[in-house]
Amino acid sequence: MGLFDKVLSNHTVKEALSPAEAFAAITLSAIASDGYLSEEESRGISLALSRMKMYRSYPNEVMQRMFDKLLGILRREGMNSLFDSAKDSLPYELRESAFAVATDLILADGVVAQEEQEFLNDLYQALSLDAEVATRILEVMIIKNRG
Fold first, then answer.
1. Are 130 and 138 in contact (CB under 8 A)?
2. Is 97 part of any domain?
3. What's 97's domain CATH number?
4. Number of domains forming the structure of the chain
5. pLDDT digits (tens, 9 = 90+) for 87-135
6. Where are the alpha helices (DSSP H) in the chain?
7. In a domain, 10, yes or no
8. What pTM does this model have?
9. What distance separates the 2 farthest-apart alpha carbons in the chain?
């Protein structure tokens, strides 16, 4: 947490997110955890979310507005604020899925930066996932992304 994060966090109101926004914010945080968000990674998030039941009825314009909102929070308030809002708004039953999708997106490019490893560790703890479940998800996603 940076100097400004400490000062400004006392003056900002955490925005409640819908379950869909919270899930998308977790994936966005995962991809941006290495400090870089490429166009290819953005497309990967959109593709991953479009496969989920929760987002099937979302037209492109709605998805774009949702990501604009999340990116706005990221720019204005920082990664920690976006992550905390997402974590607090994410329904319990979506926590394992959010961890799985975030892990899949991080592993997709074949390179896992130290920041990404730390993010996944922080995510599993923040979501209060069972260590055994998180380990199994990680193992499956490693296998999935080998080829």
1. no
2. yes
3. 1.10.3680
4. 1
5. 999 999 999 999 999 999 999 888 899 999 999 999 999 999 999 999 9
6. 3-9, 19-32, 39-50, 60-77, 79-89, 95-107, 114-126, 131-144
7. no
8. 0.86
9. 46
